[in-house]
Every structure is written in C-alpha cells, then in structure tokens.
Amino acid sequence: MTRVIKLGGRAQSAELLPSLVAEAWGAEPGALCVVHGGGDEISALQRTLGGEPKFAGGRRVTTAADLDIIRMVLSGVVNKRLVAAFSAAGVPSVGVSGEDGALIGAQPLGIAEFGYVGMPARINTTVVEALWEGGVMPVISPLGTNLDDPQRGALNVNGDDAAAAIAVALEADELVLVADVDGVLDESKQLIPQLSVDDGRALIVLGVAAGGMAAKLEAAHAALLGGVGTVRIAGLNALRDRAFGTTVTLTTAGVR
After folding, report:
1. Does the pTM of the predicted model rise above 0.90?
2. Any bridge partners for residue 115, and if so which?
3. Which domains does the chain have, with CATH numbers?
4. Strands 143-146, 137-141: parallel, antiparallel or unpaired by DSSP?
C-alpha cells in the first residue's frame, strides 16, 4: 500500500511524530513518503527580517526575496530536522527538495496575485522510486522548478498541493493531509467523519473551512480526481488509526 503523508508545520513539533512515522514505515517499507510544510517558521523569519507574511486563498504570497527565506527554512532547516528525527527513530530517511532532480515541476499560479507561487504540473517519480529502491524514505520539501522559465527558477509550492500531485503521480492508495485539528469541523466545531467534495466547497463558501483548511480540501479534490484511492484530512493519530479524521470523497455524503 503506497501512502503519501503531508505534515504541517505544527504537527512536526509533536513528540510522538517520529515513532508514528516509524510505525507507518515499518508497516509499508518502501511505499511511504513524507511531504512537509513549515509555514510558522517561514513567517517568523520573514518578520525577523522586517517583512510581513501575506496569504491569498490559503497560499503564501511569495516575492523573489521570500524565495530565499523559504528555501532556507524548508529545505535547509525543517527538512534536515525531520530527517534527523526520523532516522533516530529507526527510519532510514533522505531529505530532498522538489527542486532536486526536477522532482516537482510547477507553473506560476499568477504572478500578480501570488508572486513566485506555483501549482505542480509535472512530478518526476523516478526520484522517489530510486530512494525507495535504496531502502530509504523520501522527505520532501515543497519547492518546485518553474517550467515556464528557461532558467528553471524556483517556485514556492503549497505543501498540500505538492503532496496531492505526488500522490497522483505515484498512484498512491492513500493521501493523508495532517492538520492541526482532528479533521474537518462543521459550524459547531464537531468532526465530520466523511465529506464530499461538493459539501467541502459549501463549507468554504460559508467560511467554515478557510485558509489552510480550504487549501487542504482543494488538494484533496485534486488527488481524488487524479485517482488516489483514499484522502483523509486528520490529526497525527491518522498515522496509526486508518479510520481517524475526515475522509474526503467525490460522492455526496452530506455535511453532518
């Protein structure tokens, strides 16, 4: 069973994370890859350097100067910290950026609105497959190469979008988008166990699902349309419990 796990920035500080990933790798060695974010640390460094984070539709607006900050934090700090933690827990891990080996080829989402932000357009699965064949788990930082730029400059790719595209390209059985909450919540802050794409859109329109959760729902839709078997939005316990969180479906389920 092939699984792609997307870890948000806050989930990475959980004490149980390395052991949970070790359990997941032990259950399916050679068929698991991790994609990570690191938004809070990026925002903190932006502010330290005199900037202010800006977002549109749950995605970070990225200037040319921001790209260096994002590379520094995601590929230089967060990625290597996760690799060290997973390795210490017994998971042979290798950290790569989506720029490495043109793993994530992206196209600009809209320079005027988002700046240097891209949507995944082409995934080089040979990078992941080569690491699996070598017996190691890929830990991927979501930057991409700009397919519209002859110099192949970098684009900042939302981690959920990157994870969804990688899951589609790998023909993954499951994509788990790890959130800071137990799953998608309704207006009363109650967990919705199963949610259709249409009902997810309704939550976005109502403002119940906003920002990062809206981006997760959009990524879930893209993954399902691309053929990924199961998509869940959930807290860290989803790595251990296959029934935990919100399962997103293409069919109408009805918002509870």
Report:
1. yes
2. 62
3. 3-249 (3.40.1160.10)
4. unpaired
